[in-house]
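Q: I'm writing up a methods section and want to include an example of the input and output format. Could you take the sequence below and give the corresponding predicted structure tokens, formatted cleanly so I can copy it straight into the document?
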Amino acid sequence: MSAPINSTAGAAQASDRSGSLLELRHLRTDIALRRGTVHALDDVSLEVRPGETLGIVGESGSGKTMTALSVMGLLPSGGEVVGGEILFEGRDLRSLSPEEVRRIRGVRMGMVFQDPLTSLNPTMRIGTQVAEPLRVHQGVGKAQAREQAIDILRRVGMPRPDKVVDNYPHELSGGMRQRVAIAMALVCSPRLLIADEPTTALDVTTQRQILELIDDLREEFGMAVVLVTHDLGVIAGRADRVAVMYAGRVVETASTGELFRSPRHRYTEALMEALPESATREPDARLYSIPGLPPDLSRPLTGCRFAPRCRHATDDCRSTEVALTAGPHQYACLHPVTASSSPAPGSPAAVTAATPTAATPTAATPTAATPTAATPTAATPPDAGAGEAGTSVVAAQLRTGAPAPAPRPAGPVGTTESRPAAPAPILSIRELVKDYPANGGGLFRRAAGRVSAVAGVSLDVQPGETFGLVGESGCGKSTVGRLVVGLERPTAGQVVLDGTDIASLDRRERRRMHRQVQLMFQDSYAAMNPRMRVDAILAEPLEIQQVGDGAARRARIATLLDQVGLSRRVLERYPHEFSGGQLQRIGLARSLALQPRLIVGDEPVSALDVSIQAQVLNLMRDLQRELGLAYVFISHDLSVVDYMSDRIGVMYLGKLVEVGPAHEVVRSARHPYTQALIDAVPSASPDAAVDRGSMTIRGELPSAVNPPTGCRFRTRCPIAAEICRTEPPLTGGVHQVACHFPLRPESSAATAGAGAAG
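A: Here is the clean output for your methods example:
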């Protein structure tokens, strides 16, 4: 019978970091496919010390997940470790029997997978799944295993764990499912936790909660953590050391502070420059995107694997194998970044020194040397911008305990009298409401209420403008997008597109309106018919709308491919044959087929690597300037929304809580919820650190079946008062805020300073 989970022993283990808990020596892993063998890992050497967090970062296909799966012995079909050593607690796992590895994997090592919904068994209750490792590996009885499952769920911050154990995975939110996955990995008190992209699909507030949870549990259990991610901000704020991987190899490794302050490998430098926060606030500023694609690992490779995409590569790079240097900061680069190096094209320093002037061509004034979206090149021009650091404004009440300021008078929600005169909007939403029936359980599934998905939203989008819509999962932003494009009918309110209320149209008339508005989906692959080739996918909207004859449609498709930078050769291929970035370009081309004036982008880059994300964002901005498009850009990533948007609307539980110019909303947030979203965004700063004193949202999103009265955010707001419960919040002005106690940067800074002085 197993003893209760004990963190004291783990803490003692954490005090000794002299040796390695996990060490990989010259690891090589192959994946056998019908078309050949993919050499997924080639000569990977890493170590993880007791109690530390090692971050592994890189693009998709770099080998970071394959490294984790090789350690756990969970390689996909055809996968095999063909060389090297995997030393865990001094024992080479490759020399052990499958049964011994299975026992170690279940008890001494734990793994959290990227998508908990697919890694959890949909037919088993949560308690059964969490307790399973205890019963299988430690022989714990059913009743005691259930008690320990409830205990570990409580320790990972699961609300009502005694009730959740009887739920199924589909009944939980994304954040709750991720907590279940972490509980399963920790229930046997492992010494090593491998977290593979544990927050990729989560919004920033839930992401922060999960990362803080992993930090807390690492300290409590005294375990080591391997954090696999493509998000440099996550690595900067959480890891002790970082390993950067590219094409199956480690190309740079150092302590986190050293690597982010002084990256040496040109690939690491390029990843940092591709971040949205690295762009300037200039209207024509572009993100740096790494040209080309990673190499095909099924073919023989010579020289530096990054050389074909590197702007500093020479003939030596292409012909010479480059090994990692010795020392605490190791890198494999013949032309490393140095303090005395001149700014690389597209680096922040280069962009700052070359701010466009009247004599400098920009993206809006193309020249022969400046490619546009209609004249794609093989390599995206390296022209990234520098970051303008936004200062987080933390509510003074959190730091000083001072009472909330008196509520300020303002006009009713949706007031527009103080806005400056503007041209007629292309999209005008007025008091939009969308409710869904909530069915109860039982045989007859009687109605159990209404889900308030969107509750009285009003906003305008001007021609050629990008309106960013941001908020947590479940806030209603995607529902607004579906209502705008006519995929849903509103319960009440108006969606006026070019003077016509979409909600009042019949099915045939709404179909004609689709010429003016299109939707760009989050998952382009899921939105495409896998049995259709790209030529049919792009032709379909033209055929449905009966646009032109066959020749005209083929000409239109050729123009679309030019606009999104794809070759004619893609027309003969199927969706599964493309990378994520290529699929998103095809999705964008399909959205442009009918030459709409408005495109609704629903999380269009959330699943992409930072470099591919930069390519798609640059492309969307280029096409906006070229074609005069307006966007409604939906995302939970504030840094992306800030880069793309002219104005931003922040949604919480079906309501807009703040609307204003993008730079004001992000840098001078007035609503506590907006500030909490900003403070939750991980920063890839050299001095990034976890600020646990900032505006932090705690707890789960309230039920939309029975939302809180008054301000819907009040149940999670650190500065809420009684007035927030009894009266609706107010708003008004160009920068609108639905809050009785709006944050004021000047007053918050002054109060914070007084608190520090005291």
